[in-house]
User: Fold these one by one.
Assistant:
Number 1:
Amino acid sequence: MTTAAPERAATAPAPGTAPAPPGTRRLAVGGRSLLLDRRALVAGSVLAALVVLTVAVSLAIGTASIPLGRTLPAMFGVGESRDVLLVQRLRLPRVVAGLAVGAALGIAGVLLQTLARNRLATPDTVGLNDGATAFAVASVVAVPATIAPSAFALVGSATAAALALGLAGGAGQRGYRFLVVGLGVGATLGAITQLMLARAPIDEANRAFPWTVGSLNARAPGAVAALAICVAVTLPLAVLLARQLRLLRLADPVVIALGQRVSRIRLAVIAVAVVTAGLAVATAGPLGLVALLAPEIARKASGPRVVPVLGAALAGALVVLLADLLGRTVAAPIELPAGIVTAVIGGPYLLWLLLTTRTRRMP
């Protein structure tokens, strides 16, 4: 009897510390603690493992295959010169681009969906991608001076967001109106893009055409590096915003009573979404429906209790890498752009989502 008391004391929670709610795990860091959702942790681990596996397969498979055991040494310049050339010069750059682009689109998608309380609110549907594409094409065919398309694409994404929010009167309580207005803004900007391509000389139109079809082939290293830095900065910010986004599911007066500034939260969320989506399009062009698929995959895996920002980033990277891998291998030696593959995969899902009335709004 005397030995049982110390054991109970050892397993009991520390004085002043409430036990973790069911389904969560408490992580103590210094004098503070953080609650982590167990299902979200498991889902994130599985998605991360799938991303690593897809990276390995993408580096190994192509018109000339490499055994998986030789891909890792080839990444560091060790092994046969043929393996090093294929991995370092040809496949690794597009894998890095796919990771950055997919993560950026996943982050932007989950933030916009949660903010607008509508699963259809993504950079594709609210006009951000169309704005970035239109401005990138304009920098090639309509601007006399030589301006980097990536910089113009970021301006286009911000312009589309400003138009959609201004005409809709904001997001939040008017999420459905924000979506409908965004569709109109995107359609208008898409028509302007097609008009510019139709009226441009054939050589300029050919140079601008890759910006209308998403692809990871021969991406500019500078644009990929800028996007990778952007993801590294915005991902922690998005994770911090996720906790406040959960509060925005409540009515605005309730959120204000809890001491939160609703307008500041919405502005920060929109800024992160605009920057990540704009730089993603500036890097690889419009990869359709990735920002719709990635949050849905993460949400199904993580459950409804969290805003799965990290899961959406991992799922976005996974979708883009798989789309690029399929585009390179299914019709080899002909290469299908990753944007076409994602549209073929995501199109039927989008149609199903539109026809399913109960999924029109976020839970």
Number 2:
Amino acid sequence: MICEKEKCTGCFGCFNICPKNAIEMCKDEYGNVFPQIVKEKCINCGLCKKVCPQLKEKLDFKKPIKAFAMYNKEPNKRKESTSGGAATTFYEYILNNKGIIYGASNLFGLNEFKFIRIDNKLDLYKVKGSKYVHCYINNTMKQVKEDLLADKKVLFIGTPCQVSGLKSFLMKDYQNLITIDIICHGVPSQKLLFDEISNQGIDYRDVYYVSFRDDKLFNFKLLDNNRKILLEKKSYNVDYYNHFLKGDIYRENCYDCKYAKRERISDITIGDFWGLDKNSKIYDDEKKGISVVLPNTQKGLDLIKSISSECNIEERTIDEACKTNGQLNRPMKKSKEYNTYRKYYPKLGYRKTMKKMLSIKSKVKKILKRILKKV
């Protein structure tokens, strides 16, 4: 291990920096990936430890300069994005200005959920939407560096720890790089999601696209490569989704996340603007999606100004933006269900563990929701 296992975020920084490809990302019994050093290839250069953000005593955290509520003016773009369309708007601006974007794809047809490079607007659909699972960066950091050295404008959107891993890997600031972090609650392993798909009676090899959010809000949907719906259920009827929202099945490090606070590592922080006061000039319906956008650097603020004509946007207070966004204040706490998951999953597997994690209170709520839906 590069750092202690319970602290590792799986950011892939060490994997990308190794000059001898002596680091492999291996899965543990919960499906979470961790770096392992192949001793036969290692030359003891120490670069893996040098770039590991979890081993750094000090990181370059910055307080938000301002706070904005916004959503894209085009209804379809807002609908497709579900959180107001901030990410899509930033992506489009960079691509329109001949830049490159990097983001997590929810196309399972790529065999795993991973980051991809896009230089064409026709491919933008590949990175749209929420991804409530750990997405692998793989060798993307090397690609980002190549584009930066070629003097291309690059936009990278990921979780705070992934942004931190990228910046640590690069070892210097690049004026042509803009980083955006999403307000992350925590990430479950991909293995858990595949287990859920199998538990729903679906062969994961038939799944091409996974949707966690749509105009019905927290709606779990699986589609094949012809966009035919294989499964569609509300979050509370899907064990994986239900426990994701409750924070029961994340990586160990997520419960001690050093990035879950107002001070951030990126140029811009984005997420849902939950709790936007109804006195807001742009307030309409949170279910349609309203983004919170926090510029943490002048570079980030300049980008927001550049896309402001595409959006309904209003400055709000930083306190309001952070009040109902828990992960801008503290990391998620471990629950009793989390301890049950950790204890039983390696022994009993997914289905039996999910049954053990379901409390009597949760069972009653689940039944009531089904009854009310039929009324």
Number 3:
Amino acid sequence: MENFIFDLLKRSGADGWAVRDEIRTGWEFYFIRHALDQNRVRETEHITLTIYKAFEENGKKFLGSASAEIAPTATEAEAEGLIRSLLFEAGLIRNPYYALNQPRGDAAPMPDAPDVAAIAGDFLRAMKSVDEDAGAFVNSYEIFTDSVCCRLVTSTGIDVTDVYPSSMTEVVVNARDDKREIELYRMYNSGSCDAAGLKANVEETMRFGRDKLRAGKTPALGKCDVVFSTDDALQLYDYFIDRMNAGMVYQGISDCEIGKAVAEDKGGDKLTVRAAKTLENSSHNGAFDSEGAPVRDMTIISGGVAENFYGRRMFSQYIGLEDSFSPGNFVVEGGDKTAAELRTGKFLEVVEFSDFQVDPASGDIAGEIRLGYLHDGDAVMVVEGGSVSGTMRELGGALRFSKEQKQYNNYLIPAVTRLCGASITGAEG
């Protein structure tokens, strides 16, 4: 990043500014089955400028902001033109005034750069260890491993640099019998490689593919408990986590209040959620957030009661928070029962949706079933079609979660979640 950018910002007349410089050094691998098709090494740099402009109208103070990316190869004239444009745009934004982040304590020492080659090797060995057969196998996969170096410099004196790994694996699995063949796609995000977890997830996907070949139609079940054991469960927990975000509170989308229950008690487990500074194999283990605030461990919800809000500086200040930050990792504590205990009685375990959503404002639940297992005592039927619906405002207080936990990149959540009393529409025909 050229030093003239800082000189131009200091002379621009802006009331505040921030420069974020992110350099990614990555390795990429593309496989057809387990044969390497191509691979490459790349390095990219992204520089983002943010300009703040303070002004007053009719006795009210405002602080507008505008951001844009500038090319690493930009000339001084090009940078000066962009800064002028951002300054003009910032002057059109009428956000109530707030104070920008200041440096807080000593900067954490910058960690060593991750060994991208070693991480890539872990992914390659994990994928080659997957157990396959003629009925279900890996069609193709792509592996991306990055070392991310991010520096943030602000007009208030923040100058911090962080280095962390960020990886992604895309896998296409095929399953077939003598009548047809289907494909299932998965994308796994992480920091470094959880080899055992990746192998287990891919093999689980192949099992789902085999079962989908013999699935029948989902019957109309009316009200029925639904069990979640895949990453779709994140939507259920994000409903509560998002509602503790200062932005949601300030805008009136969330009605959560510190010291009050986040859901009406309907006999479910009491939710406890923590922000975690680090989580093994997460790609969000930075020491500071995107605005330079130090990240720390913090309890957000404890025993079903709101304990701490979190979020961006602007919205946090609007609701009276001074020492705020945006977490990178979340941990949802497990419940009292085991996964096996939650999988008893009559329930529908849905492992594949065409799309599953929980609206953060209304709490409405919607998802079309692509693959599920209908349990009724000792009988299990593989089903597809139909949908799951309901609202977290009514059902959130009846959630049950297993003691065991499972990690999805920057989330550690109960491995099994039981949503009691959802509505199940059957498949037509």
